[in-house]
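Q: What structure does this chain adopt?
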Amino acid sequence: MKLNAIVMVLLAAVLLGTPATYAQSPAGARPVWDVPFDFVVGDQTLPAGHYTVQHGVTPGTVLVRSLDGQTSHFRIANTIQAGRSKDQSTLVFNRYGSQNFLARVWVAGRGDGVELKQSKQEREMARHGAAKETVAMKTR
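A:
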């Protein structure tokens, strides 16, 4: 348990200090999302605001960071295939009532994306039959 915590802290330090290239758009600019609601990434609730989402900095992870640099969080993710390149970068949230969970990230110009591992809280909501809605948000 302690070893996992140490590994996660070290991974966070690497992620927060490493510029991402994998999740950049073809033009080189990172996609920016204006998320109008609070949302959950892993076990952390992030406030509404402007965010960049980078995946592939470290294989199997996603880094969500506010543009003001005040909020960031990373999560384990799995690569998923779209079948064809996406025209626009998109965040996909699973919504249960007023709770929003970041679920998938698609980046323009890529045929693959990532799916975040569900948090314990999201699994509990789904198991107890909470109505699930999928919300897709394009970049601004």
